[in-house]
Amino acid sequence: MEICTPDTPATLAPATELDRLGDEIAELSAHLDAATARLLDLIREYDARDGWNNGFSSCAAWLSWRVGLAPGAAREHVRVARALGTLPLLARALARAELSYSKVRALTRVATPETEERLLAVGRAGTTEHVERIVRGWRRVDRKAEAREADRQHAGRALHVYPDEDGTVRIRGRLAPEVGALLMQALAAAREAVYPKNVPAGTCAPGLSQETPTMVQQQADALALLAETALHQGIDPGAPGERYQVVVHVDAEVLADADQPGQSVLEAGARVPAGTSQRLACDASRVVMRH
Predict the structure, then answer these.
(1) How far apart are CA 30 and CA 39, in angstroms?
(2) 100 and 32, same structural domain?
(3) Residue 142 CA to chain centroid, in angstroms?
(4) What is the pTM of this model?
(5) What are the residues facing 169 on neighbouring strands?
(6) Do the domain assignments include residue 106?
(7) Residue 195: which of 178, 173, 210 has the closest Cα?
(8) What's the total number of domains in the chain?
(9) Which of 176, 203, 133 is nearest to 275 (CA)?
(10) Which residues fall within 8 angstroms of residue 84, CB to CB, at 6 or more apart?
(11) pLDDT digits (tens, 9 = 90+) for 34-89
């Protein structure tokens, strides 16, 4: 039997080169994950400080404009950034490149401070596909808890209006996420009507001070306009499909089946139960967006 030993190095060389390329890919991916963790930290801080609130409807809208992210990707970055603010173990794992961004993105859909440690172990033990499968199962189990939370929020709705000692009126309340978003949209529209943009300096609506009011003062004036409008024009919610001028982003899979993974969030990034999005979709306009 003849053995051609001189050929052996030639067969090993390509394998060694491929190993080196593989190691370089893995190392660069780890650097990207660590950089993504830092990016999410910055997004969370920018969002918390309302840095985007200078003409944009949300932090995701600003990201889409400033960084060039697709709208869906921008919303996911904001959602994950906010979630990691309360999930230090997952945040640390991403910063150390122990978990990929894909895994962390999936885990933050269901993780809470109480379940974070267990889900971190899931992320370390399996592939991204495995993690997605676990998250889908977790969401099915968690649907009942989500429904209970939605019921709790609905039962806890309240609005307290009472006079103070000096004759002013104090208001304090708690609303479900989608109702709160509706109120904020209405206040924004009323605020724009009272204090329109692009008005020459020193001019304002009759009866208003020439001095620029603070944001909280503008909010109070906007609420007064909403009350006056309701009394003058009557309480009419408008056509069923158009009365909610609030944007809810829902993946098609979630809209068809609430157990499927995907987003169900308000424009600003706050999550709403998939069942709530399905209910709102019954009498709201739909715009199909492909990313």
Answers:
(1) 14
(2) yes
(3) 19
(4) 0.55
(5) 163
(6) yes
(7) 210
(8) 3
(9) 176
(10) 40, 41, 44, 90, 91, 94, 104, 108
(11) 999 999 999 999 999 989 988 888 899 999 999 999 988 999 999 999 999 999 99
